Amino acid sequence: PVANATITPGPPAHQVRAGDPVTLRCSVQVGSAPVTFTWLRDGRELAQGPLLELGDIDVGHSGTYQCMATNQLDGHRVFQALSPELALEVTPWGHWGPAVAVNVGRTVLFLVLLLGVIRGCHWWHRLGA
After folding, report:
1. Do β-strands 44-48 and 51-56 pair in parallel, antiparallel, or remain unpaired?
2. Which residue windows are transmembrane per the record (predicted)?
3. pTM higher than 0.85, yes or no?
4. Where are the beta strands (DSSP E) in 9-85?
């Protein structure tokens, strides 16, 4: 029977920024093939397969994720192993945070260059006088 289902990256919490690509992997430590995987978000079935590719996520992807591994022995008995819960928290500032930092950096660079030009003009003017 299947046992010890786990999600990578592991529980209890995983914090990511909006816009980050996220892929979760489900695996079992024990279990005869074939093993099927079902993904749950907030207790509802979401997808099938060992990988859950959420792509570039947004705040709507926040929630509690689990995977359920299932196999069947002797054609009759069905076994299931449920992973620990993974609380995925998406912070909404992922897209604009780096853009703001780049624009602030450009503004500071512009001001430094402007001060350098003003100082150079002042020095040049004093030399001519």
Report:
1. unpaired
2. 96-118
3. no
4. 13-17, 21-30, 36-41, 44-48, 51-56, 63-73, 77-82
Instruction: For strands 13-17 and 86-91, give the pairing.
Output: parallel
- Max distance between CA atoms of the chain, in angstroms, equals 101
| C-alpha–C-alpha distance, residues 104 and 127, integer Å | 35
2's tokens: 């299947």
Half-sphere exposure of 54 (CA within 13 A, CB side): 25
6 SS3 class: strand
User: How is residue 123 written in tokens?
Assistant: 């020095």
Bridge-based pairing state of the strands 44-48 and 21-30? unpaired
Range with the poorest average pLDDT among 15-19, 76-80, 121-125: 121-125
Distances (CA, A) of 53 to 41, 83, 110: 13, 17, 41
pLDDT by residue (tens digit) across 51-100?
999 988 899 999 999 999 999 988 789 999 999 999 999 988 644 555 55
Any idea what DSSP says for residue 31?
-
